[in-house]
From TrEMBL:
PANTHER family given in the database record: EUKARYOTIC TRANSLATION INITIATION FACTOR, EUKARYOTIC TRANSLATION INITIATION FACTOR 5
Organism the protein comes from: Mangifera indica
InterPro entries registered for this protein in UniProt: ARM-type_fold (IPR016024), IF2/IF5 (IPR045196), Transl_init_fac_IF2/IF5_dom (IPR002735), Transl_init_fac_IF2/IF5_N (IPR016189), Transl_init_fac_IF2/IF5_Zn-bd (IPR016190), W2_domain (IPR003307)
Highest taxon listed in the record's lineage: Eukaryota
Keywords: GTP-binding, Initiation factor, Nucleotide-binding, Protein biosynthesis
A Gene Ontology BP annotation from the UniProt entry: formation of cytoplasmic translation initiation complex
Protein name as annotated: Eukaryotic translation initiation factor 5
PROSITE patterns in the cross-refs: W2
GO molecular function, one term: GTP binding
Ranges of biased composition (kind: Basic and acidic residues): 148-178, 263-281
């Protein structure tokens, strides 16, 4: 099957990754019943990530002819005789209006219908939201037949939750297995001592029985009695045991040298928490610590070309996880007053890298609560948009968002305007969750 690059502007790019099949048409019928059948419309629509009914309806709207897509058979028909080149040109117009991002031109977009019944294209590459011209005839059809995207995203999040539960169960099983191994080790060592004593007494007291037993049979019995496959032998790796082995194996002079190096390593390990404590004391108050961390992160962002490099930078900073997250968020959105949610969306990769550890999502939510609690009224209005953007991009998960919101309503800052402005998104999240459970 011949493939074409999606979008006329990318026609000459031999390495363009987004491709679609070349359109194939067929004229059917004659007279007043003549129709044009787009044979591979299903494959084309699949490559564009749009329902085939959208493209078929668009042809009908632009040509002023009746069009129909049969969901059962996958047949796309447009009344009248239309050549392939004309339909291919209309398909290019459809791609520009309803597939390609208006910001970066990437065709990897998703159709989003807002509460105000407006159609937008959400770009997965740059995060740009493109506003579709609602004067176009096809928009009415799209509003009546919205794309099925919520169920797919819910299924993806449900799979992610199931994977987390499976990992937790696996860790619990590993802990149980370790306990059983320790018990088997204790029982095996005691049973081995008893068996050794019994065999030695038998050899001393009854030599005549050994003479009557054949050598092969005797070896088999001994192997059976001393079979310790179930016993797990381990080496004691504690510091005291290491010292004892060193004293036994080395001379007095060399043993002292090894002991000295071991003790120095131990002191250096203990010194790092002390340095960390002194680092906290160097700042006269929390404000100085915050400003210092923000400055260090900004300097690091100039050198960090990827989210992984930023994550490595965060591990070197001196401060609590909450202080580091507060400073990171402030450094990413510094001096932003208008379009705050869009700016957060641009920096989502950095926030995703900082929320990989367990419990880090709640830390980020507390950072958002603290930041918006001190923000201006214009910025405060966008708290729901920020939560929605981070949720859609899998930076924050719904279970942590709902838990954070419930804690806030009963906490000391329950009268904060953050909860009032976040409430619409929380209600939407709860309703979406209930719909998913019903399905």
């Amino acid at each position: 099957m011949a493939l074409l690059n999606i979008g006329a502007d990318n026609r000459d790019d031999a390495f363009y990754r987004y491709k679609m099949p070349k359109m194939i048409t067929k004229i059917e019928g004659r007279g007043n019943g003549i129709k044009t059948n787009i044979v591979n419309m299903v494959d084309i629509a699949k490559a564009l990530a749009r329902p085939p009914s959208y493209t078929t309806k668009y042809f009908g709207c632009e040509l002023g002819a009746q069009s129909k897509f049969d969901e059962k058979t996958g047949t796309s028909l447009v009344n009248g005789s239309h050549d392939t080149a004309k339909l291919a040109g209309l398909l290019e117009n459809f791609i520009k209006k309803y597939v390609q991002c208006y910001g970066c031109g990437n065709p990897e977009t998703e159709v989003v219908i807002t509460k105000n019944q407006m159609i937008q294209l959400k770009c997965a590459a740059c995060g740009f939201l493109s506003d579709v011209d609602m004067r176009d005839k096809l928009t009415t059809f799209i509003l009546k037949n919205p794309p099925e995207t919520k169920k797919a995203s819910k299924d993806k999040k449900a799979l992610r939750r199931a994977e987390k539960e499976r990992l937790k169960e696996g860790e619990a099983a590993d802990d149980e297995l370790k306990k059983l191994k320790k018990e088997v080790k204790k029982k095996g060592s005691s049973s081995k001592d008893g068996a050794t004593k019994a065999i030695s007494s038998k050899k001393k007291g009854n030599n005549s029985d050994e003479d009557r037993i054949s050598p092969a049979h005797s070896q088999a019995d001994e192997k059976e009695e001393f079979d310790d496959d179930d016993v797990q032998w381990q080496t004691d790796t504690s510091l005291e045991a290491a010292k004892q082995r060193i004293q036994e194996q080395l001379s007095a002079v060399t043993a002292d040298m090894v002991m000295l190096s071991t003790s120095e390593e131990k002191k250096s390990v203990k010194k790092s928490p002390e340095r960390e404590r002194k680092g906290h004391e160097n700042g006269t108050n929390g404000t100085n610590t915050h400003e210092r961390l923000v400055s260090e992160i900004k300097d690091g962002l100039k050198k960090a070309s990827s989210a992984s490099q930023l994550k490595a930078l965060l591990t070197t900073l001196t401060g609590t996880p909450q202080e580091v997250m507060d400073a990171l968020f402030a450094a990413l959105v510094d001096d932003v007053e208008k379009g705050f949610a869009k700016e957060v969306l641009k920096k989502k990769s950095y926030l995703a890298a900082a929320t990989q550890e367990e419990g880090s999502q709640m830390v980020l939510l507390h950072t958002i609560e603290s930041f918006f609690g001190k923000a201006s009224p214009e910025v405060l209005k966008e708290v729901a948009l920020v939560l929605k953007a981070l949720y859609d991009n899998d930076v924050l998960e719904e279970e942590f968002i709902l838990e954070w919101y419930q804690q806030g309503l009963v906490g000391s800052n329950r009268n904060s305007l953050v909860w009032k402005n976040a409430k619409p998104f929380i209600e939407w999240l709860q309703s979406a969750e209930s719909e998913s459970e019903e399905e």
